């Protein structure tokens, strides 16, 4: 995102959030943890990992779920604000909205297990930073419910931004229209 106009950058961010960037999700073998994922990544580590993904279509031509878009959007937010993603969540959302158990890297963390020949085997914990904007924000059921009500109630976004967030992706090609159940970073129940 170096020499593009601000409109091009906004379009690129929109495509990252609505899964029309032209890249699929990374394939990760959950049975085997890559050792690099056991150490918290730097910004360069995240960008390098995203760069390993291949393009399956030109941007805006197809819909394909990808967590990379959320990770990239979090990196953009960090660069623009000079704050970490976790600090942004805490300072801009959790604290002002009174969400006491909502944030990034909440502890204690549940131990994950996998079935190995009928026995539970612990899975090593991957640092939250590998997922940044892609599902690393968590909270109690009460705080998540309150977050949803506050979001839908217009206390976080203005009406136009909330409408954009909640509008499903529509792609048109060769006279056909396809609608996908995602807005800007949010799965819709349609």
Automatic annotation (TrEMBL):
Protein name: Serine hydrolase
Top-rank taxon: Bacteria
GO molecular function annotation: hydrolase activity
Gene3D superfamilies per UniProt: DD-peptidase/beta-lactamase superfamily (3.40.710.10)
Domain Beta-lactamase-related: 13-185
Key words, A-Z: Hydrolase
Signal peptide: none
Entry-linked InterPro entries: AmpC-like (IPR050491), Beta-lactam-related (IPR001466), Beta-lactam/transpept-like (IPR012338)
